[in-house]
């Protein structure tokens, strides 16, 4: 990878054995020019890890960046986007900037801004090119330690999402189908499998029903089919009891390395208290989103939602406008995930 404008020398599926890879590496000509690391990372993120270029779903994505001296462009933004799409960035830096380069230094702490985590695991500094071979073993060991490749987890592939659906009489059959379409549209955005994001659903009236648990469906298509098959129940509205039920039936079975996300959809005021069940869920690490329609009560929606309310609580006057919230909910789930500390 190089310089003013990056290009691919060979992609993930060009060579099928290590001998061919080694030969191909030896044939790479040096380009000369500037050290545009930010541009290179942006290029890798947009082009390199595509399925069409040989990316395999289950395998972690790793980018090892070798930098001699100092980048001549900004790396922060390109690195953030690469991390957020699941790329584990390692940096091997060789020497510091020489006197000529020092005046072009844009980000003095560029390594910490670029690497997957700032705990030292993702960066290696060597005093000169001659010392590079000494770090090969260390680097290989780290890249192969898949449990520590923290950036493989993204907002779309590492959640257990429990959807809690109001099936009370006021909803009605037609609107219930609209709710299910909304639930399907949210689910569609995630990478679903038994090791990635998992989805479960509860429907409630006075009573509660587990429609399907987190471990029931392990492909996106199965989840979408299961959502379609949910039958409208009709009855009262005990939202508090439904939150307790979701905590027991769904979130108590959540995996420890998954973010627990509850999305509750209701069209009216609850017959029971929602505050205590919601508080208990929050204390157990559940991030709660509330979506209210028509007669839903603002105070209850805010009690159910995780703070800050304005990012976790939504209200629409009619069912047909539900679809508008899909991008916002996904965006907020991702913003929250991506704002975790990187140390």
Describe this structure in words.
- The two termini are 28 Å apart.
- This protein has helices at residues 18-26, 37-48, 76-84, 99-102, 110-114, 136-144, 173-188, 220-228, 239-249, 275-283, 298-304, 309-312, 325-338, and strands spanning 61-68, 87-94, 123-126, 159-166, 198-204, 208-212, 259-266, 286-293, 313-316.
- Helix 7 (173-188) packs antiparallel against helix 8 (220-228).
- Helix content is 34%, strand content 17%.
- The strands form 2 sheets. It has a 6-stranded mixed sheet, sandwiched between helices.
- The model has no long low-confidence stretch (mean pLDDT 94).
- With 343 residues, it is of the alpha/beta class.
Which key features would you list for this structure?
alpha/beta, 343 residues, 3-stranded parallel beta sheet, 6-stranded mixed beta sheet, 13 helices, elongated
SSE blueprint:
Blueprint: H1 18-26, H2 37-48, E1 61-68, H3 76-84, E2 87-94, H4 99-102, H5 110-114, E3 123-126, H6 136-144, E4 159-166, H7 173-188, E5 198-204, E6 208-212, H8 220-228, H9 239-249, E7 259-266, H10 275-283, E8 286-293, H11 298-304, H12 309-312, E9 313-316, H13 325-338
Parallel strand pairs: 1-2, 2-3, 4-5, 4-7, 7-8, 8-9
Antiparallel strand pairs: 5-6
Helix pairs in contact: 2-3, 7-8, 9-10
